[in-house]
């Protein structure tokens, strides 16, 4: 038999020592702690969790909309792309060979 089973069989139950809740420090006490202890003792801001939850919720909503959403109007047509300001001449500053024009 294990020792706890033997104690229960003998009639004396094992003692349970409850944890004491941690005492919250005031903002003044946290402000004067050393930097490393201040980081450990200061509770995290709920803004980060709220931001992450809202991003996750928006992502899930987008996935649901992409899965069940429908587009009623579909249009296909042929056409030309016309520049709004007209054409532009591209010339190098010095004479030479233009190997590529990256637009």
Order of helices and strands: HHHH
Q: Which stretches are low in confidence, meaning pLDDT under 50 for 5 or more residues running?
A: none
Structural class: mainly alpha
Shape call: elongated
Q: Helical content, roughly?
A: 40-55%
The assembly state of the depicted protein chains is single chain
Spatial gap, N to C terminus: 82 Å
How many strands in all? 0
**Most strands sheet:** none
* DSSP strand content: under 5%
The mean pLDDT is 81
Total helical segments: 4
What does the radius of gyration come to? 35 Å
Structure description:
The protein is mainly alpha-helical. The protein has a domain at 25-66. The chain contains four helices and no strands.
Offer a concise description of the structure.
The chain has a domain at 25-66. The protein contains four helices and no strands. The protein is an all-alpha fold.
Key attributes of the depicted protein:
single chain; 103 residues; mainly alpha; 42% helix; elongated
